[in-house]
Amino acid sequence: CKITRPPPTPSPLRFSKFFQANLRILVTGGAGFIGSHLVDKLMENEKNEVIVADNYFTGSKDNLKKWIGHPRFELIRHDVTEPLLVEVDQIYHLACPASPIFYKYNPVKTIKTNVMGTMNMLGLAKRVGARILLTSTSEVYGDPLEHPQTEEYWGNVNPIGVRSCYDEGKRVAETLMFDYHRQHGIEIRIARIFNTYGPRMNIDDGRVVSNFIAQALRGEPLTVQKPGTQTRSFCYVSDMVNGLIKLMEGPSTGPINIGNPGEFTMLELAENVKELINPEIELKMVENTPDDPRQRKPNITKAKEILGWEPKVTLREGLPLMEEDFRQRLAIPKKGAI
Ligand code: NAD
Ligand code: UDP
Ligand code: UDP
């Protein structure tokens, strides 16, 4: 690394032989949907100090408001495409827009975030000797020709399409992780996250579960993108966060699929949301976007065997929890509640 600076001054707490040192954890993208739930879970452990670095592109301080001012918490406005100097033991590297609307908005920035951002976090991990976990994605499998997807599958990805800034970006990020591991001995962990949903998703973030719930609550038709038979597997956010922490603490570099194998077509999802929120609502078939994967379902054998992890919350249990959060934020009370 070209940055030269004196070594960090050891804090009395961190190096005292009388106290067990706190674990200092950096969460990039910690103001986002999954990141803020991860921060909540990490902060529950009194031995953890958490630093969030986020540029607020798709995240918000609001997601972290309960921790602002807490002595074990620090929030930094920072873009990961720029170098970052902090002293930490672990890095959860989540910073990257995840919704197609946002990652396609400025594709060059998305690929910079994936490539330069991951390189900076690896440079940081190398300098301070931290363990680093990357939140990669099921999108690395592209429009998969193998179903369900195992970690051994190399994927079927268009390198020049409109989604490539995200899925090829994450593929390069995975390559960088393994090259720093092999070349510099960095301790790495790679999670391949499958579609995740839950409270605090951006209401207008364009992903399917948030779209359907917001539309149903507003009394608008549910926009099912054609043909509607494409499938996804939806993981509730608390399960996801538990999986990420188990992976960080566990023995394996990964990549490991973290997701819920329950598979639904978009038409089935729409029917579920309709039944839950408003049976009167209509479905509207609309045009799809290019390169939309036709099917997606994780094989989670590795997560079960290596991490002892599997999801607990079914879609039927998770959707009402998200409905409640969206009702509060949209100020739409439940029928009969007032
Ligand atoms: P999100 O958009 O809610 O959160 C991403 C966060 O990263 C936001 O707070 C955003 O402001 C921040 N960010 C973006 N670019 C940044 C930059 N250059 N510098 C600093 N901060 C930046 O998305 P999410 O759903 O919470 O996703 C978190 C991670 O999980 C992402 O890496 C995403 O690729 C991965 N992932 C998510 C899903 C999913 O279904 N939610 C699926 C697969 C992978
Ligand atoms: N980096 C960083 N924080 C650090 C150390 C490095 O952001 O604490 C950045 C650094 O600016 C560089 C990148 O990480 O762009 C990769 O660092 P590395 O040491 O691997 O490469 P070099 O600096 O030698 O090119
Ligand atoms: N989708 C849909 N209606 C919407 C938004 C998305 O039918 O309003 C479909 C989309 O075509 C895709 C699936 O839902 O097949 C999941 O899309 P999302 O953007 O949530 O996630 P990803 O494509 O990244 O899996």
TrEMBL record:
GO MF term set: NAD+ binding; UDP-glucuronate decarboxylase activity
Keyword Glycoprotein belongs to the record: no
Catalyzed reaction equations: UDP-alpha-D-glucuronate + H(+) = UDP-alpha-D-xylose + CO2
Assigned EC number: 4.1.1.35
One Pfam family, short name: GDP_Man_Dehyd
First-level EC class: lyase
InterPro entries named in the record: NAD(P)-bd_dom, NAD(P)-bd_dom_sf, UXS-like
Cofactor entry: NAD(+)
Domain NAD(P)-binding: 26-320
GO CC, alphabetical: cytoplasm
Source species, domain of life: Eukaryota
Secretion signal span: none
Predominant location category: cytoplasm
Pathway where it operates: Nucleotide-sugar biosynthesis; UDP-alpha-D-xylose biosynthesis; UDP-alpha-D-xylose from UDP-alpha-D-glucuronate: step 1/1
A GO BP annotation: D-xylose metabolic process
Keyword Cell membrane found: no
Keyword set, alphabetical order: Cytoplasm, Decarboxylase, Lyase, NAD
Family: Belongs to the NAD(P)-dependent epimerase/dehydratase family. UDP-glucuronic acid decarboxylase subfamily.
Cited PANTHER family: UDP-GLUCURONATE DECARBOXYLASE, UDP-GLUCURONIC ACID DECARBOXYLASE-RELATED
Record protein name field: UDP-glucuronate decarboxylase
Species per Swiss-Prot/TrEMBL record: Carex littledalei
